[in-house]
Amino acid sequence: MAKKPLPILDLNAFAFDQGTVPDKALAELIKRRYKTQGPTSMLFYQEPLHIVRGQGTWLYDSKGTKYLDVYNNVPCLGHCHPKVVEAVSQQLSQLNVHSRYLHDTVHIYTEKLLATLPDNIDRLVMTCTGSESNDLALRLARTTTQKKGIIVSEVAYHGNTQMVTEVSPSSFKTQAPPEYVMTVPVAEVTHRGDGAADWFADQVYSAIQTLNDRGFGCAALLVDPIFSSDGIYSDPPGFLNKAVEIVHEHGGLFIADEVQSGFARTGDCMWGFQRHNVVPDIITMGKPMGNGYPVAGVASRLDLLEALCQEVGYFNTFGGSTTAAAAGLAVLNVIEEEGMLENSRQVGAYLKLGLHELQDQNHCIAEIRGAGLYIGLEFSEDGDVNRPDVDKATATLNLLRRDQVLVGTVGKYGNVLKIRPPLCFTRDNADLFLNKLGKVLKELS
Amino acid sequence: MAKKPLPILDLNAFAFDQGTVPDKALAELIKRRYKTQGPTSMLFYQEPLHIVRGQGTWLYDSKGTKYLDVYNNVPCLGHCHPKVVEAVSQQLSQLNVHSRYLHDTVHIYTEKLLATLPDNIDRLVMTCTGSESNDLALRLARTTTQKKGIIVSEVAYHGNTQMVTEVSPSSFKTQAPPEYVMTVPVAEVTHRGDGAADWFADQVYSAIQTLNDRGFGCAALLVDPIFSSDGIYSDPPGFLNKAVEIVHEHGGLFIADEVQSGFARTGDCMWGFQRHNVVPDIITMGKPMGNGYPVAGVASRLDLLEALCQEVGYFNTFGGSTTAAAAGLAVLNVIEEEGMLENSRQVGAYLKLGLHELQDQNHCIAEIRGAGLYIGLEFSEDGDVNRPDVDKATATLNLLRRDQVLVGTVGKYGNVLKIRPPLCFTRDNADLFLNKLGKVLKELS
């Protein structure tokens, strides 16, 4: 029996009202935090971390203890990558201003980024966050199609604005998304083999029918192409393509939310949608785009932007600033120069191999999914995917933290270990992680 | 007769489809811009600027021409303020990570910022942009009051998300805000003397009645306390207080959008609402908060945050990052150390005096409004506020740009010159500005 779904955002949260920590300095910081930031201020782990320094794949706490970072994708090139730090610092000291003046770096960056995308995607709107990007994308889709319905995956998370929260079922704690939102399951794709694309297309088709019945029509299918919050569903590659065809046939658009799967993360290609052999109408980007400097964007087509701009004005103060462009450009350059895509592919494959070896020894691991350096490890009782073991996933997470390794959890039941290190993760890092994970699993067995 | 209102965001825009510029290099950059960014990418001035460097109150173009910046409030301490550049660069090289780990700077900053606010405001949620802040504020208000209606000023602009655009009448080009939004006029306050607060309260009361009649109720009155996009209405101080009382009496909340009027801008106090002797329930912040580094926030009360968090999760990846906190802290420190509030008050008063002298010689200036370093100069035919002269305002703006002085325009008709320099603006800067403005007005007379 599946356990009751938990709110996805709370799975790895320190409980302010219940948690206690032995370290007095830490307890004091936690108290100050609650007293000034309050309930939105979630802290990771049963014993939160007091981090003071980061470098590459390592984070250091206030006592000098070092942690292997197998979680953070925002510093995609590694913490404090010197080339990004230098580019941003340099630009900050020279000119940090909005995009209403012309500036070369902004144009060099825009052209370089668009060159990585399909030919039909010819315009970039820079924003500041992935939430802003998805918020704008939904408006572009609705204005262009003159329809309202949105299809997302069952446990989707697309950001934090009002509109984007409405299409993020994982954010709801008590109620459900509004009626114009239809969710589709995704987990089954893993077990459908050659029939995966047809099966997923059927789910989407059924959702379109419901949206039509409700009078909304389907404005867009919006998905994270690696379905991270659902529990990381990457395979078989191509399982999205028939669903996208059906959405197009019914006058809807396809929005690829590349906040998670973009920027070489999946190892196979620069963008997650490319693994599925589909061409989006809108591509949204965020998190890793500036290696930690707030940079985000919406890539789309001229006709979509024109449709929106006839109705309303759009301007983003921090979006496309000279410094945002400098940060973004440095990230693209380093991905190329340091072979991050290839590293993501190779080390990702190596890591997966090691995880499969651990699976052979541990029946609690039901499935290993993912691509490149985005891997999910599903914990289930006796390896049965129908009996999710959230307790084991949570225990593993916190024991790994004790053993100086940082990961997260995701999925409908929170029973999937989220393995998503910076892209500079090495084989040595992978060995260390596998070794520590192996020990923790033994301890828990 | 008042001219037809123009979309506020377009008033100072270069027209891609009509504009031509003599400089070939500039024309080439403009072409690249349109081909890769498209219609959302607004450029300032009939002849756009190619800016390459900024320092203090100065911006420099690619030919080395220097411009006096009398417009930009994001670099509130001056372009590339060395202490902020250093603080941000230092933090970027040490640790740039989200807020799910504990970090001292984040807490030092939160406490320092909250200490500038009324006692009832005891919690800070850090976001990334003013738009995200207002989006969250509206949700806090609605969840807490269980009402939907929002009252804003007639030409309000509060940001760019779907929800915040809905409460930004100035963003609409063809349609009007939805029915749950009521707008109130503000311009009259200037002419009502002691009766200003009563008059404005009457407008708000009437809006509440309409919202009640429509079944929405009033969740919040949301205003920028200096009413910048409406045309800058600062006086008489206190004109907001009775309206806020009435909103509270009817179970609504008061949201002060301090994105424009906060951080010492008005010269009288740190926050715009303080000039009106009112205590908000929610305070939103943005633009100047990090002197250009993307930092924003929502300050509110524990009970409001708890109400929202019971329904949905909220997390902001870039909000409250170690670097955002370092940037914000440096800004607060420099405001104190360099006496920015006092400078805003003194130089603002000096500037206003000089503008009044110009008004004596130029009948086209109907009114001078504003506080501190946020001043509006209203152009009207023969000084009659009922005959807005948008052509003269636009001509003045573009001639000032020719003469190396940068300002903007705002207001319902776009006939108000927006004078809003960095807070380090000096008396010498003011003299230069007044001198050049005087010459332009003479040329136009």
General description of the model:
2 copies of one chain form a homodimer. Chain A contains 12 helices and 15 strands. By secondary structure, chain A is an alpha/beta fold. Chain A has 2 domains: 8-77 and 340-444, Alpha-Beta Complex (Aspartate Aminotransferase, domain 1), CATH 3.90.1150; 82-337, Type I PLP-dependent aspartate aminotransferase-like (Major domain) (Aspartate Aminotransferase, domain 2, 3-Layer(aba) Sandwich). In chain A, the strands form 3 sheets. A 7-stranded mixed β-sheet of chain A has the order 4-10-9-8-7-5-6, with helices on both faces. Chain A has a 4-stranded mixed β-sheet with strand order 1-2-3-13. In chain A, strand 7 (218-223), helix 7 (241-249) and strand 8 (253-257) form a beta-alpha-beta unit. In chain A, helix 3 (104-114) packs across helix 9, helix 4 packs across helix 8 (302-311) and helix 6 runs parallel beside helix 7. The longest helix of chain A is centred in the last third of the chain and has 22 residues, at 340-361. The interface between A and B is large, with 102 and 102 residues.
